[in-house]
């Protein structure tokens, strides 16, 4: 494993297209900023591993008998999408 | 039935499976450019809904049907489910408003029913049918193995 020393606000460039920045170091917690193209998924490893493992358990070889569950009327809640994702950045004209 | 009608129908069915009962099996292609976590190489799925299996749907590999995931609307198991979709994922999927998104969660079949993964929902843009298994920013609030509701014993 390559080990590099970096100070706060210093970067590491990977493959010319991924930039990892040390944003803050605070009592054993390192905050990293990661800029990567949209085709590069970035995940916290613990969560990634959990879901990865769960997918491996869930996969079946073709369709299987499904369980029966009580009928309920689904409530149509929607996921929250932060407004920032939905609107282009505001242009502030120079005075 | 016209292809466009069928597409429209499965999206409706997937959303309110209880209120619009199916008469025949319907299917729809879903593109997942990143695959599912651990199945990154599989990018094309068929979403299958049949009347006998409602409210469950199958997400099955388009080519050979050997890889299949049972999925269900999370709102059936947890009506208050509200995953926060990260900005990058909303942008990648082209979600302009919450209504553009359709959400399924993967079911793990177990001896006494099954569990639903609420930490890694599959979010699909209902217009483009492009989907992704996303990790919501509030994923720690949800269970990886949320139990499916159990059928009460029939009254004598």
Protein described:
The complex is a heterodimer of chains A (95) and B (156). With 95 residues, chain A is an alpha+beta fold. The model of chain A is unreliable at 73-77 (pLDDT under 50). Chain A has helices at residues 45-58, 83-86; strands at residues 11-14, 18-26, 29-35, 60-61, 80-81. The longest helix of chain A is centred in the middle third of the chain and has 14 residues, at 45-58. Helix content of chain A is 19%, strand content 25%. Chain B has a single domain, classed as Roll (BH3618-like), CATH 2.30.290.10. Chain B is built from three helices and ten strands, in the order αββββαβαβββββ. In chain B, strands 1, 2, 3, 4, 6, 7, 8, 9 and 10 form a nine-stranded antiparallel β-sheet that branches. In chain B, β2 (44-49) and β3 form a beta hairpin. Chain B starts with a helix and ends in a 9-residue tail after the last strand. The mean pLDDT of chain B is 82. Classes of the chains: A alpha+beta (95), B alpha+beta (156). β4 (60-61) of chain A pairs antiparallel with β4 (67-72) of chain B, so a sheet runs across the interface.
